[in-house]
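Batch 3, record 17
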Amino acid sequence: MESRDLIYLENVKKVYGLGPVQVNALYHINLKISFGEFVAILGPSGSGKSTLMNIIGCLDRPTEGRYLLENIDVSGLKDEELARIRNRKIGFVFQMFNLLPKHSALDNVQLPLLYSGIDPKGRREKGLYILRKMGLEGRWHHRPNELSGGECQRVAIARALITEPSILLADEPTGNLDSKTGADILSLFKRLNREEGVTLIMVTHNPVIANEAGRRIYIQDGTIAEDTKLS
Amino acid sequence: MKFIDFIRLALTSIVENRIRSFLTMLGIMIGVGSVILLISMTTGFREYLVNQFMGIGTNLIIISPGKTETKGIGHPGFEGVQKMTIGDTIALRRHATALDGVSSITAGTADVRYVDRERRAMIIGTDEAFIKIINIGVDTGNFFTADDVDASRRVCTIGYTVKNELFGGRNPLGEILKIGGSGFRVIGIMERKGTFMGTDDFDDVVYIPVTAAQRLFNTDRLLGIRAKARSAAMIDEAKEQVTGILKKRHNNKEDFTILTQGSLISSLQSILQTLSAVLAGIAAISLLVGGIGIMNIMLVSVRERTREIGIRKAVGATRRDILFQFLIESTMLSLIGGTVGIFIAFIGGVILSRFLPQMPPVMEPWIVALATLFSGSVGIFFGVYPAYRAAYQDPIEALRYE
Ligand SMILES: Nc1ncnc2c1ncn2[C@@H]1O[C@H](COP(=O)(O)OP(=O)(O)OP(=O)(O)O)[C@@H](O)[C@H]1O
Ligand SMILES: [Mg+2]
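Prediction for the assembled complex:
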């Protein structure tokens, strides 16, 4: 079955554990996401949101079902090919920022380019450029512990964007920020989605943030309970 | 990811964790350093020995009374000591065509006195052929002649130490030395020779005609005979001739031992080789211990950096990237440790050579190459398992790791 969607999930199931202690983190997931969408994923804690994000981000594989990313069946790919997809097509933003603590903002931002095989000069130029775009030009040599939460998250977003991925996956990106900083980060995301056409998939517990998205997917007990397109 | 990026990554990590890196390297450092130093000392010692043996003269053949069962160095003379006399020397001179010089040796210690100064010195009784066989010359005056030996004249040629101790600044030539009570006229002073194997002072010696020495020590025996083959190629032939001639004179019994420099050196070499093998064993053990230390620390490091591994994987690092990152880090750690060890051994060698000027440690290039190679291999070998653990971390679990 051919699809022209960016993301196409068909009957995806994810089971954790073996034998009697099995957890059905996801089951019966059917989902299409097109280029340029802004999708908010909502749901109670433990419902499977992060699991879904990890599968979409090629960090994890579904136990069953098919996952096509840009028409490529990802389920059968080797580790190296998955790593390449994570590097080129996907940008991750985490709730905990997940920056390397001993490295400067610039080094953190450049990290994906290291695995794209770009030379140090090119890495540095691109890193500085994207930090400037994020309004962090004066902060490039600071380590994460010398930056505020909002700045850390902007460094993380810069890192996610540096390889110009088609999908930006954000798992509760504002969860660790105060509401003002959270709002700033949200408007940054919205601008990226609107102006640069980045496909944005964001997990959030905050209904206000979810309201900004063009589409809301509600997950409960490992399945999609509701999928509403707004506007 | 390019190789140079891995190197840079490893160096950054090593520098970031300076103290831990240093402690990790310590095992390899000490192991490589001490083993290289020990091997250099052995090499220095061996070169010293070889020089010493070559220094006594070339193509030297040492004939001693008594037969030793084992080849090589030992103490000839424990079993069936037979007489060896000046007659043997004369026979060898006459019939052994492969020999270039034959000289009788007898030796003992005696009190040597000049006016009011006295010291106990080594007395060597020999003949005019001696200075031709042994690499030693006369500094001033003369060595005694065949005529002096035949007439058993009481003349002597003294070593540098004897001259210094007994005569001080005075010219000893023509003076009378009392050796064991009888007077010997000093006719020459030997060149300075230094010590042999750190014990016998070659300069604390008085040479007198062998005939006079036999009278002094009241014996007709010789301690041995020193001869010189015409060339290195003729040493074996010379040995055969000596054996034949002496056997005929000694009732067809081989009651003497012939040693050549070659056999002495080769038996020394084999002793030193055993020593080297022991050192190699120590080296292997110390590298093993160092390697286990590296593995230990790398395992801790992999665990500590679990989250980092998760982050790197999330942004596109392959298993291979992670594997190489850790493998190259452990290899660099042990290579740096090995290099520092080599450096320490070098410094240690320089310091030691001030205390042992006669046998300075010699650090041969192949040892350096081997040490580098081995420390690198240790890093790879003991780094594989931790690196493998790192590479096969599940990215999601790694990211969740606290
Ligand atoms: N590695 C794992 N092994 C076993 N069970 C797991 C594992 N990871 C997740 N689960 C389970 O799968 C279910 C879904 O987890 P997931 O992290 O996707 O939830 P979530 O919706 O992101 O929750 P939250 O809002 O708290 O982040 C949970 O019940 C969780 O306990
Ligand atoms: Mg979650």
